[in-house]
Amino acid sequence: MNVSEPMLPPVRGLVDRDGRLVEADQRLHDLNARAGGAIGQPLAVPQIAALARLAQRLGILVSRGVIAADGPDDLELWVRAEPDPAPASGNVHLHITGWRSRAAWHPAAAAEERATDFLRSEADWLWETDSALRLTFLSLSAGTRYGFDVGAMLGQPLTRFFALGEGDGGAFPILGGLALQQRFDDQPATIRSTGHRVRLAANPRTDANGVFAGFIGAAHVLEDVVPTAVAPTAPVPPPQDAITTAFAARLDQALRAPLDRIIANADSIHAQSEGPLRQDYADYAADIASAGRHLMGLVDDLVDLQAIERPDFVVAREPLDLADVARRAAGLLQVRASDAKVRIDRPSLGETLAATGEFRRALQVLVNLIGNAVRYSPPEGMVWVRAEREGNVAAVIVADQGKGIAPEDQARIFEKFERVDPREAGGSGLGLYIARRLARAMGGDVTVDSAPGQGARFVFTLPYRG
Predict the structure, then answer these.
(1) What's the longest Cα–Cα distance across the chain?
(2) Hey, CA dihedral for 399, 405, 411, 415, is it positive or negative?
(3) Given this model, what pLDDT does residue 229 score?
(4) Where are the beta strands (DSSP E) in 222-309?
(5) Residue 416: strand pairing partners
(6) Considering only CA atoms, which of 419, 458, 465 is closest in space to residue 442?
(7) Comparing C-alpha atoms, which of 164, 159, 139, 162 is closest to residue 150?
(8) Pick from 14-18, 304-308, 449-453: least confident
(9) Which whole number is the average pLDDT over 218-222?
(10) Which DSSP string corresponds to 98-126?
(11) pTM (2 decimals)?
């Protein structure tokens, strides 16, 4: 039986050094049996087995979302694979949550099916994504042939696997395909881990309700062997930073203006500025505006990510009042907090805290921290924002009354594209990564102190200016 039971305890299992499932809670046992496996035999769910092998090979905990087939449906799982504390054993402990069932994708029409068959027939190897462009499938044979780890990439953003380049005319075909949810061809790309150059094409896929559900894609390899040296007369390829910068710039240009129009028009419809409107239509418009703002935030995060990861990224070192920055950040989030029925207790108007940093970036960090606190606070909850000096450090503490963060998740939330619970509504998984990178670039840091059921306490520090 496929059901979503997020409140049940985590499902545990144990895989030995040879990839055999030797222990399993009932749900994992049943899923493995439906896939054709049994206790004492190799783990039969490919996506979970791949993560177990990766954790065993690297000797570190690996935690990722996967989508596994289960009869006629798909299961969304969050899998933590952790090597045994005794490395000699070779065992890997599995800790699986989520278990969210969804209808498997099927082509919406015969024409779509024929188009996909044609795409597959001319491919060197295949890939698939969900609607958020996270990889859900990569050809295992291609990983063996071209030297990349399929298991490590499943559940990761497409752009973490491929570095995308400009096509003919300086455009990125994938952006047009994503914006219009239609087929794209001739997207140049490079496999980041190996350097192989490929050309991508993909057809969109839809779910049973006709909603965009991602891409079914083909990769055409342009060279079988990665050159070990560039001949003196050969043109020098653009540096990876240049490709990434160009992609981020195109992404910003391609999406920001349309999203601005969508949000503005949806807000206008919701406000009924052109006359009375059925309330359900007005509510739909509010949902559209909210979704547009979410996508705009993702664009902002991706542009920021590109900027902070450049080797020449620098921040200004200027005098600022960190207490004033905290008050401004809280003020920017007051409407969101009121809508969520959450109160923000900010530093008083007379309070000051001299620090050194870049005003714009410090404000960005605190908007992220306070915004997260509001998002995860219960209705009628409180978010406390305090400015304090600790020796040579100026600190702003943001504390909430949310459900808290388990100790084993507190390092992971500062990694790219990581969230404590991917099933919850939230951002892109980039906010805390960017916030910490910005804080450290200014000579400070962002840290967390939390426990399940006791809320979270984030501390943003900068050098104190005496």
Answers:
(1) 73
(2) negative
(3) 39
(4) none
(5) none
(6) 465
(7) 139
(8) 304-308
(9) 87
(10) EEEEEEPP--SSHHHHHHHHHHHHT-SEE
(11) 0.44
Picking from 300, 366, 353, 283, the residue whose alpha carbon sits closest to that of residue 322 is 353
Nearest partner of 148 among 133, 166, 160, judged by Cα = 160
End-to-end CA distance of the chain: 64
User: Which secondary structure element, helix H or strand E, spans residue 259, and what is its range?
Assistant: helix 240-270
**Rounded Cα distance, 188 and 190, in Å:** 7
With a cut of 80, say whether residue 102 has pLDDT above it. Answer: no
User: Which positions ≥6 away from 346 have C-beta within 8 Å?
Assistant: 326, 327, 330, 331, 385
Which of helix, strand or coil describes residue 380?
Answer: coil
Strand partners, 63: 80
- Cα–Cα dist 97/87, whole Å: 25
Report CA Rg, the chain.
Answer: 24
| CA–CA separation, 74 and 128 (whole Å) | 14
CA distance 358 to 438: 9
Interior/surface letters 32-61, b for 16+ CB within 10 angstroms, e for the rest: beebebeeeeebbbbbbbbbbbbbbeeeeb
Helix-helix angle 240-270:279-308, to 10 degrees: 160
The count of C-alpha atoms lying within 13 angstroms of the C-alpha of 433, restricted to the half-sphere facing its C-beta, is 19
**Token pair listed for 95:** 């800790």
222 vs 218: CA distance, rounded Å: 13
Nearest to 326 by CA among 462, 222, 156: 462
Digit-coded pLDDT (tens) for 340-395? 899 999 999 889 999 999 998 899 899 989 999 999 899 999 999 999 998 999 99
Residue 4 pLDDT class (50, 70, 90 cuts) = very low
Phi-psi label, residue 192: left if phi above 0, alpha if psi -120 to 50, beta otherwise: alpha
**DSSP state, residue 168:** G
Helices (H), 36-109: 46-58
Report the alpha-carbon distance of residue 313 to residue 37 in Å, rounded. Answer: 50
Band (238; pLDDT cuts 50, 70, 90)? very low
Provide the residue count of the chain: 466
> Tokens 């388990």 sit at which residue?
406
Query: Which amino acid appears at position 394 of this protein?
Result: A
Which residue's entry shows tokens 């054993």?
89
| Cα 106 from Cα 268, distance rounded (Å) | 37
**β-bridge mates for residue 449, sequence order:** 457
